[in-house]
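During the first year of the project, the team set up a workflow for recording each protein of interest as an amino acid sequence followed immediately by a discrete structure-token representation. This format lets reviewers and collaborators read both layers of information side by side without switching files. As required by the reporting guidelines, we include two representative entries from the current panel. The first entry is reproduced here exactly as it appears in our internal archive.
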Amino acid sequence: MRDRLSLTDVQRLLSEPTEEARAAIAVKVAAQFNNVLLPPKERELAQEILGYLVHDIATHVRATLSRCLSDAADAPREVILALANDIDEVAQPVLESSTVLTDEDMVALVVGGSAAKQRAIAGRPNIGPSVCEAVARTGDRSAVIVLVANEGIVVRPDILEKIVNRYPADADVYDPMARRADLPGALVERIVTTVSKSLRDQLVERHGVDKATAAVLEDIAREHSLVAMMGDTDPEGMFQLVAQLADQRKLTPSLLLRALCAVEMRFFETALAYLTALPHDRAERLVHDVGALGFRAIYARAGLPEALFLAFRAALDAAHELDAKDALGNKVLVRRVMLQRVSAQYRKIEAKDIDLLLDRMTRSARTLPWRTGRAA
């Protein structure tokens, strides 16, 4: 067996007390714990040497030991804990990947550790809810950002809500959180609203934009962001998002039209089901009715503005055509087709892209009577 430990190694530790020699022994002894066939006597010898090296005066030796033991599943627990509680440079490798550490260990390390240690733990691919909650509740802001950017783990909705409550209007926290697939619909709207208000304040305070115009731009920004973020929301979360938007009078015709033009069909169907108090499957059938009456009927029951019906009809027809061509993945094509179809119904409005067209169309719709409650 290559590189087996022997008494010679022990003698070398005693006779050549240089940092380089101790680091070399650390590499060799750490490697033994990845060898499942290591005889008991040699494993015991290796463990004794580890117990000696983990308290080495040289940081380089302890850091070398930490790197070499970070992926050793059979490494002695007391050694791993000693390394994890060492200075940041030494602790980082085992904090990032050692499977010897339990969730209880990591919670204690988050609560009592430095920001660097918290970041190392928050970025692990295998942390549980208790560790996530510890980071969310007591972790340094930089560790929280690492946690919400860690897409390899599941973060419970209540933990994400704690983070939003702890860091209101913090774009550095919200940006990676917005890209999470497990972000609840209710938090999607809350984050987008907060960011939009921040945009409005900047326009008013820094750029001299009047408050009325800034409010319109805030609404547009919020709707843009909502549509961009709603794609990964699950059915239950989608219904909660729709209900929350309706309660806050933000389930507007312009938002529904933007979603339809982005082919966010689940949101559009759920919104019409909510507004008409129809079961989702029935609303879906009416929305996609190939005849002339189904969509017209549910559109009228939802109370959507008549002035925008042709835009909704054109966007829905284009979505059906694009779906039949399996072209929904081509965003450039989708936006071009939507612009052509919708603008054909509103020739007095000039716009070079679909966003500008929708902005100009829906600003006038904001002055129309509009309700957001369920149909009677």
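The second entry, processed by the same pipeline in the following quarter, appears below.
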Amino acid sequence: MNRLLFLLFISIPICSFGQIENKWQPDSIYANRQVKKKFVYMNSPKDLSEIIEFDRTGKRIRSTKYSASYNRKTRKRKRIEKIKLFRYNNKNQMIKIIDSVGQDSTTFKYETNGKLISSRKNLGSFVYETSYSYQPYESKTTRRNDSIVIYQKTKEHEKDFYVKRFYGYYFEPKLKKVVDTTNGIPNTTAYKDYSDLEKFKDDKTITNFFNNKGQLIKSDINSIFMNDRINEYELTYKYYKNGLLNGIRGYVSRYFKYEFWE
């Protein structure tokens, strides 16, 4: 009987399959309600995922992300995975996001009129460059290997804020097999061939529904990923009486709590 041993697996980028959520609200909402901290919970209202801190003007200044947990035991042993710090210029424009050990960073550039025009994200050994355009508002993110584009995704928005489509492509090394024999037993080993890349296309369409207050209350997502795989799901959004987002129910549920400046 053949034995199949996988040494390496094809990795699917997180953005190629998963939830396209509008989990943020406009900055003015946090400023007007004097939000000091935002607590994010994943899957369960007890499973803390992230704490975002704001200054008194509503600007994000720090984000602390925690390890994932799957049950009560792992929830008690949650650890800090990453801390991000947010930096601003004298015009209160966010110009940089850095992690606490300096491995990852994102820098932002603006036009003289104050509009964001580009950003550059260093994620380990990868560099992602994003350009922004307006009327309509959209962003395009690209990663290159030398001069070759190996990742490109475009994000479209409506009402100048909410995501309504996310599409593009990326390349992954092909998974190949080598068959040999050990002690008379055939073995098949799978590996990634980085010299032979395969192109995958993704396209997520998000149909958003708003209430008479302009709040997003539901999103219907049609996701086509890895060329032809289809996933459809619905997200519903709930709010506190003060207008802050309470939770998102759907593919992966999220819950939010807040602490306020006095």
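For the second entry, the following points were noted during internal review. Helices lie at 27-32, 72-76. The longest strand covers residues 185-210. Both points are flagged for discussion at the upcoming steering committee meeting.
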